[in-house]
Write a structure and sequence with these properties.
The chain is mainly beta. The chain has one domain. The protein has one helix and five strands. The strands form two sheets. Strands 1-5-4 form a three-stranded mixed sheet, with no helix packed on it. The chain starts with 13 loop residues before the first strand and ends with a helix. About 15% of the residues are buried.
Length: about 70
């Protein structure tokens, strides 16, 4: 799960999210927008697969991976 670090905007390069966190946008909740890139929504279908459903932010390159709720609990 994503644990925001308010002192380090856009430094996390791989973030696992669940369907409950959709719609997806970057920067994610908890990041300070004023010292980051503009908020951009990323199209993520609510269909996690075994390897995840991925989207990459065009601004910072952070990769978001949709995982099942059960996988996120591990």
């Amino acid at each position: 799960m994503f644990e925001p670090d308010p002192e380090q905007p856009n430094t996390r390069q791989r973030v696992e999210i669940t369907a409950e966190q959709l719609p997806l946008h970057c920067p994610p909740p908890g990041k300070r927008l004023w010292d980051s890139h503009p908020k951009v929504y990323l199209p993520m279908q609510n269909r996690p697969t075994e390897h995840g459903n991925e989207q990459t932010c065009p601004y910072c390159g952070t990769v978001y991976v949709l995982v099942s709720t059960a996988a996120a609990a591990h």
